[in-house]
Predict the structure.
Amino acid sequence: MNAPIAPTAITLENFQQILLEDSKHTFILVQFWVPESEACTQVTQMLSRLTPRYANVMQYTQVNCNEQQQIASQFGIKSLPTVMLVKDGQPVDGFAGMVDEAQIEALLAKHLPQPEDELLIQAQEKLNAGDVQGALPLAQQAYAISPDNIDCQYMLADCQIDVGHIVAAKALLENIGLVDQDNRYAVLQGKIELAQQAAESPELKALQAQYAANPEDKDVKIELAVALHAAHQTEEALGLLYSIVQIDLNFGDAKKYLLEMINALPDGEPLKSSYRRKVYSLLY
């Protein structure tokens, strides 16, 4: 849960900047209140819980009507609590009187882009640019915010397949109901099948047989590691290469491939931080 954000107090000094200028670029939520009103206090508590979710697309502000009667009069405030959503200097929605939290949430959701939608757009842009490493953390954040959002589920599964987390992607797809199994479902199932076929290719099996016959052959280990990485079996590939550099840091291209594979992992991936620490301990 995001930490509450202290609202900005609107005064005659900053009124024009916030409600006229800033509202050209972002939504401004204006709460008209007085501290002695219990209803105002309850609305403040609800807004404190809801507004952090929209911190990137909305500014939460308050007008103390005891102190800023001129502003309250300008807006024609007749009862408290009153809340308005302002964009481009004009109120676009709001309510007067007591409402429940679900009603406030519905009002915000009606007008504001959802945080997970923004993250999905960014993740898709990363994928389109071939930056899976940058896309996965964004997809994970979107899914954490809204795990029931089908778009978040598909995006996360897509990224997981691309980084080799096939088991996790399969588990995610298995939980998608029939009604939500659109074209994306078929595409991702196809990607999983291709990844699994790559893991069972004759070339990979031949290298695995060579390694089983002579597990100390470092050249075979390197070849097998490269093939495993291509088949999205990154953890096994890293393990093989690390077993080489542990004994001989400069053998062949083992260190080069190991560092390339580590760097190719998405930020936040446990394998990345784990193997970075291991390699660092060998180098220093």
Observations:
- DSSP finds 14 helices and five strands in the chain.
- Residues 8-111 form a domain with the Glutaredoxin fold (CATH 3.40.30.10).
- The chain has three domains: 8-111, 115-194, 202-283.
